[in-house]
Amino acid sequence: MPICPRLEIDLGKIKHNTKVLVDKLKEENIEIAGVTKVFCALPKVAGVLVEGGVKYLADSRIENLIKLKDIEVEKWLLRLPMQSQVAEVVKYADISLNSELETIKRLSDEALKVNKIHGIILMIDLGDLREGIWQDKAVEIAEEVIKLNGVKLIGVGTNLTCYGGVIPSKDNLGKLVEIAEKIERSFNIELEIISGGNSSSLDLLERRQMPEKINNLRLGESILLGRETAYGNSIKDTYQDAFQLVAEIVELKEKPSVPIGEIGMDAFGNKPVFEDKGIRKRAILAVGRQDVNPESIIPVDEKISIFGASSDHLIIDVTDSKKDYNVGDEVRFNLEYGSLLGLATSEYIYKKIL
User: Where is the Alanine racemase N-terminal domain (predicted)?
Assistant: First the structure.
């Protein structure tokens, strides 16, 4: 029998999605850094991104970049480098995103030790309030970076939507371009990269409002799940089901839809609320919250609904399904970003590459 629970990964669909976005952005002179973190940088999947045309591979964790060391493209560290890892950053990342001058100085020192030049993209905070130098300090910090011998200032970038939910706009990305141009004029240099954010910037591109000098986007969810992330819309001509969770039924019984007795806290400290739907045919699947957030998985069988989950069990309602489910049968789910992240990270989920 097939191994369950498992995450099925369709390389053909991922490659298709990659090519669609690479071709689309090439028309706007925008290159892609393919983000590998949500699938924990499985090399076979990362290789498909490269085959599909991404120029760079990017990840938030050194452990994942180490997995990609044999793929011959430039690699970015997306999360701000830890000073305790500067040696690993210089060894495994060609470029890193930075906002702290002291860390950049340490990267420079380390790069000089090993006779390398490490690429620096200065992150600018445009209001989302995650990482980044405040706008009025950007030129000052850039000047200090340019003085260092072990690093090269190759660009500026920003992050939007991930923390504060700020939507990319012509105005805020226009400010990023203005800062880049000011740095170029001040020091008579040409920046290679102006990175205008992540998959949330694709809606702006679709509306033809992307500032012209933006020449890079860091894309993960849009490639892997076929969705832009500003409003969650599907991207034309892409697949949304390149990744699926497959779980096995371990119990199937008719039971009431409301627990019997006084309701206290569940295993996660929450007091659950139940809707009385009478007696329902309930299936228990061998996967739980330790692996995945049940609120961000979507049953492929549209007649199935999810009751809830404990650490190790997912409880679903199959009463209205046209399929006659039995113990041992498999149930499939499409995924949102958070559920894919959890499943890829969980050591209890078998990864099957198709």
Answer: 9-222
Separation between Cα atoms, residue 110 and residue 117, nearest integer Å? 10
Query: What span, in angstroms and rounded, lies between the C-alpha atoms of 148 and 109?
Result: 9
All residues at 6 or more sequence positions from 288 whose CB lies less than 8 Å from its CB, including other chains: 309, 310, 311, 312, 313, 314
Phi, psi of 77 (to 5 degrees): -95, 120
**Residues belonging to the active site:** 37
Residue 130 pLDDT more than 90?
no
Domain spans of the chain, in order of start: 11-225, 243-353
Q: Which residue has the tokens 């689309």?
A: 24
Q: What is the pLDDT of residues 52-107, one digit of tens each?
A: 999 999 999 999 999 999 999 999 999 999 999 999 999 999 999 999 999 999 99
pLDDT of residue 162: 77
pLDDT in tens, 223-278: 999 999 989 899 999 999 999 999 999 999 998 766 665 655 555 666 666 666 77
Q: What architecture does CATH give domain 11-225?
A: Alpha-Beta Barrel (3.20)
Number of H helices, E strands in the chain: 10, 17
| Strand partners for 294 | none
- Select from 213, 218, 214, 215 the least CA-distant residue to 198: 218
Tokens of 166: 């700020």
124: its two tokens: 């600018």
- Block residue for tokens 């209205």: 320
Q: What is the pLDDT of residue 324?
A: 96
**What are the start-end ranges of the E strands in the chain?**
6-9, 31-35, 56-59, 74-77, 95-98, 118-125, 133-134, 151-157, 193-195, 216-219, 243-256, 279-285, 297-299, 305-309, 314-317, 330-335, 350-353
CATH number of 243-353: 2.40.30
Residue with token string 């959890």: 342
Tokens representing 174 are 């226009």
List phi, psi (to 5°) of 199: -65, -15
